[in-house]
Amino acid sequence: MDQTVQEWLVRYLKAIVNHPDEVQVAVRRGQMTVVYDVSVNPSDIGRVKGKRGKVIQALNGLIQFAGHKEKLRHVVEVMDAPQEASH
């Protein structure tokens, strides 16, 4: 099921961002939780999170519902862009 959710999440995210080729979703599975780590172009982070976090909250709601039968908590996390190291 994780792969199906992951594929759906990638398709959805590619539809809402300006740089669809940079969308990546990695899955981390624990005993009680499945985490979908979302990585996008730094300029698209606001599109994925939405105003006041509305988009990411909606995604988490859908993903949680999708995993309800498994009795696992499913969570979408947006990975912040790595900070440039200053030398």
What number of structural domains do the residues give?
A: 1
Uncertain residue ranges:
83-87
User: Hey, roughly how much beta strand do the residues contain?
Assistant: 15-25%
Largest sheet: 3 strands, mixed
Shape: globular
Cα-atom radius of gyration: 13 Å
Instruction: Classify the helix fraction into a percent range.
Output: 25-40%
- What class would the helix/strand composition place it in? alpha+beta
CATH class: Alpha Beta
CATH architecture level-2 label: 2-Layer Sandwich
Mean pLDDT: 88
Order of helices and strands: HEEHHE
- Do you know the CATH topology? GMP Synthetase, Chain A, domain 3
Major β-sheet strand ordering: 1-2-3
Word description of this protein:
With 87 residues, the chain is α+β, with helices and mostly antiparallel strands. The chain has a single domain, classed as 2-Layer Sandwich (GMP Synthetase, Chain A, domain 3). The chain contains 3 helices and 3 strands. A 3-stranded mixed β-sheet has the order 1-2-3. It is globular, with a radius of gyration of 13 Å. The C terminus is likely disordered.
